[in-house]
Design brief:
Number of domains: 2
Order of helices and strands: HHHHHHH
Length: about 160
């Protein structure tokens, strides 16, 4: 049987955010920035950092490869390290859509650079540009392709 964390457990359990990948850290940071303030200031959130972690983690969609209790604790630790992430007014749906669009446009610019580098035969720079795009918009799938798909294509062509 899996142990269910208590409200206090996420804040006190030892968690190493440094054990996350850069992309995982960005995903959690965006989740807090985009939805944490709304949860924190809601009746359900009750201005509890632990509740923010809990509600952002429910469903297991943020980091599906990781145990949800681990993700919960990582979110709490992230907020404890950077409490300013919960400051200010929660973004509106329109503001969230604009943020998402800006992130995706920035990722597209990186992917355009990756394509230029690929066409020039500079595989290392093409892969680095794909990595940058993923850090800007980690959950974005342009034209239904994942970043791993793109990296795989570059590596396949490099080996051909």
């Amino acid at each position: 049987m899996t142990e269910q964390p208590t409200a206090e457990q996420p804040a006190t359990a030892p968690v190493e955010l440094d054990g996350l990948t850069d992309v995982e850290r960005v995903i959690l940071r965006y989740a807090v920035l985009d939805n944490g303030r709304r949860i924190y200031t809601s009746m359900l959130g009750g201005k509890s950092v632990s509740n923010v972690g809990r509600y952002l983690t429910e469903g297991g969609e943020l980091l599906p490869e990781r145990p949800w209790t681990f993700v919960w604790r990582c979110i709490v630790q992230l907020i404890e390290r950077e409490p300013h992430l919960l400051e200010g007014t929660p973004p509106t749906q329109r503001e969230l859509a604009k943020l998402r669009r800006l992130r995706e446009e920035s990722a597209d610019l990186c992917l355009e650079d990756a394509l230029r580098q690929f066409r020039a035969g500079d595989w290392r720079r093409a892969l680095a540009a794909i990595d940058r795009a993923e850090l800007v918009a980690p959950l974005y799938s342009p034209r239904g392709r994942t970043y791993d798909d793109m990296r795989g294509f570059v590596r396949t062509e490099r080996g051909a």
